[in-house]
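Deliverable D4.2, example record:
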Amino acid sequence: MLSSILDNDFYKFTMQQGVIRLFPYARARYRFINRGRHSFPPGFADALRKAVDDMAGLQLTRKEKHFLQLTCPYLDPVYLDFLEGYRYNPEEVHISQDGDQLEVGVEGLWYRAILWEVPVMSLICELFYMLGHAERISNEAILDNTRQKIERYRHLGVTVADFGTRRRYSYKVHKLVVEALKEFGTGTFIGTSNVHLAMMFQTKPIGTHAHEWFMFHAARFGFKMSNAMGLQHWVDVYRGDLGIALSDTYTTDVFLGQFDKMYSKLFDGVRHDSGDPLVFADKVIRHYKKMGIDPLSKTIIFSDGLNVEKVARIAEHCRGRIGMSFGIGTSLTNDAGPAAMNIVIKMTATSPHNGEWTEVVKLSDEPGKYTGSGEMIRQAKLVLGIDDAQNA
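Output generated by the structure prediction step:
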């Protein structure tokens, strides 16, 4: 069901290079979380197992490697040679089913296991609709709906990127969406997180890092050092490239407390992924002003469950105050008729030195997006001084 090893989000490859360079012995565990409490039909686990096993045949082609060499000069030749030789090992993925509930786990060396999350999620979504015989709207309707959306974004005067790989209806729908964005979105559509489709439609692959980057650093260096060490190691690898920092792994307030003048100047901006986007924007603007930095020289990438109406509200609030752009996911790639799935796959533990396992947690600005055990979440809040009343 997957035709390219690059059918994945760009930040998985950029993080993979960082892990190879800095933490080659680290191990990681990931777990599927069924937030939407979806019921899976009989035989689903077997179908997913077959699709995952088939991924062992994927490999980077010469044409794909050439695209990365030309488009992403910060991916060094050693890494691209590694990626050319990389093969998915399906033994790293454990799949089972108990009644209508699906269990999926991933375990392996972090630099290998890191690539599984996004394609496995996309496979779960596509198989869910396929095996459930969920009929979608026509190709023509998808193209027309996407055209109307990108025209509305153009009318708002904003730029948008496709961030919809993980929870897309299907690969075919995703391809149709990016085709329409490229055709009708000149000046508004700036790229996609999906590297395969970026190459196919000759647009920019977009992404930097995800929550797991900082979750690992918390396990390796402690909660209080997670943001600072995560940012510093990103700078060590990319030297100023890929300069959008994810801010909410342990709440934005904690992040901004460690986002000092050096990092505030060095990074091009921050990404919003949870909590009230208007409150977030105000906090970030105040932070830059406190650092003596013009907020209009920086950018917020908004990426939390966006649609045209939400983007319009955010754009009105931020225009003339700070730079902004928008990563649109499910509302583009899974607006095909049936209800979109609400699922994630998150890192749950890591072994930073190839020794004992350490549980990891994520404490977003929205408590509903927390991941990790209650006890570890309590410990993280205690160490970081996080007040539920202020961050709920």
